[in-house]
Amino acid sequence: MPQFSEITDRLAGLQIEVPSWAYGNSGTRFKVFAQAGTPRTIQEKIADAAQVHKASGLAPAVALHIPWDKVDDYDALNAFAADHGVRIGTVNSNTFQDEDFKLGSLCNSKASVRAKAVKHNLECIDVMTATGSRDLKIWLADGTNYPGQDDIRDRQERLAEGLEEIYAGLGPDQRIVLEYKFFEPSFYSTDVPDWGTSLLHCLALGPKASVCLDTGHHAPGTNIEFIVAQLLRQNRLGSFDFNSRFYADDDLIVGAADPFQLFRILYEVVRGGGLENPDVVLMLDQCHNIEPHIQGQLRSVLNVQEMLAKVLLVDTEALAQAQKAGDVLGANGVFMDAFYTDVRADLADWRESRGLPRDPIATFIASGYQAGIEAERIGGQQSGWNS
Ligand code: PSV
Ligand code: MN
């Protein structure tokens, strides 16, 4: 197995994009519990996200969700982010909260509604141009609840047309990442339910369209690392939305529910050249319903770092030899050795050697930042999952 010192160069390249909405309040359809100090504006969300980067060195970009994070002056927002040591990342469009989109957006049977959805995405591209952001992430809540409700085949044609119009609006260095999800909010059919459907639309669109893989968007038991391997083979894995789940789209802290699954996914990222590939964005998409938002984000990026360190420790030569020899248990043993290696002390030493806190979470807590925002952010409308 490689020494820890042999993997630090690659580990140092890890960059994780954090979602602006993770800093707002969130919950379930039963209750949203408000937290003291929650941001009221995108600037406050960025300031909080910057704390995650400051303590970990891992999170230099913040994804926006439009219209939640809309501002009048994107130059000023860019400057604000830069002043805080971070930048604007992926722009997420939102065609799931407007009354008009009740029966779908790009797949709606009404041309006027489809046009409205296209227009919104084109406006998101304007935001990307203004912020220097490369990626437009499209996730559609489109689907049906009842068999026969709409023509599921026509819906695919409408989707292809709408995506083409949006694609035509991309600048030369901009991309679409098309996210899939097998159910919710639609319970019978979903228009982009799986990676295959997303990939087919991306292939039809052209080279500036790739798949976004949200780890919470699969049926239980799905082998997600296989999907990672396959999409990387096709150069069509544009981004991840990392989170973890026990049941459905739980949006829990990445690595919390199934650390071994995160290990297996990251192994395929590394194996497929995704780690050093700027076209593969590692993003979080999480909601911290009951835990403190900033600490939740910190824990998330640190979980990814820890699991990546273990992946980089896999003895790839020994693994290849065992695989070639058909040594089933030997190969599995090499893989598991890396997973079971405790890298926490090495990581702490390494962080310190780079001028970062040994224990980013403890350092953040001790900084008093949280107490400061709780005292300062009085009044106003706290951001929530829908604002
Ligand atoms: C949908 O469940 C999703 O994963 C999409 O990425 C949305 O943009 C995001 O959640 C909103 O939290
Ligand atoms: Mn997502």
Could you explain the architecture of this structure?
- This protein has one domain: Divalent-metal-dependent TIM barrel enzymes (TIM Barrel, Alpha-Beta Barrel), CATH 3.20.20.150.
- 44% of the residues lie in helices and 11% in strands.
- It has helices spanning 8-11, 42-56, 74-83, 111-131, 152-168, 195-205, 224-233, 259-271, 293-312, 316-324, 328-340, 344-353, 360-367, 369-376; strands at 17-19, 61-65, 87-92, 135-139, 143-144, 175-179, 189-190, 209-214, 237-242, 281-284.
- The chain has an eight-stranded parallel beta sheet with strand order 1-2-3-4-6-8-9-10.
- Helix 2 (42-56) packs parallel to helix 9, helix 2 crosses helix 13 (360-367) and helix 7 (224-233) runs parallel beside helix 8 (259-271).
- Residues 21, 92, 139, 179, 181, 214, 241, 249, 285 line the site of alpha-D-psicofuranose.
Short structural description:
By secondary structure, the chain is α/β, with parallel strands linked by helices. 44% of the residues lie in helices and 11% in strands.
Proper CATH architecture: Alpha-Beta Barrel
Number of strands: 10
Q: Which H/E pattern describes the elements? A: HEHEHEHEEHEEHEHEHEHHHHHH
CATH topology: TIM Barrel
Gyration radius over CA:
21 Å
CATH class term:
Alpha Beta
| Fourth CATH level, the homologous superfamily | Divalent-metal-dependent TIM barrel enzymes
Reported for the largest beta sheet, the result is:
8 strands, parallel
With strands numbered from the N-terminus, the spatial order across the biggest sheet is 1-2-3-4-6-8-9-10
Q: What is the helix content?
A: 40-55%
State mean pLDDT (0 to 100 scale). 98
Kindly give the count of domains.
1
Shape: globular
The tally of helices reads 14
Structural class: alpha/beta
* Ends distance: 48 Å
- Can you list the ligands bound to this structure? alpha-D-psicofuranose, manganese (II) ion
Given as residue ranges, the uncertain stretches (5+ residues, pLDDT < 50) are: none
| Share of β-strand residues | 5-15%
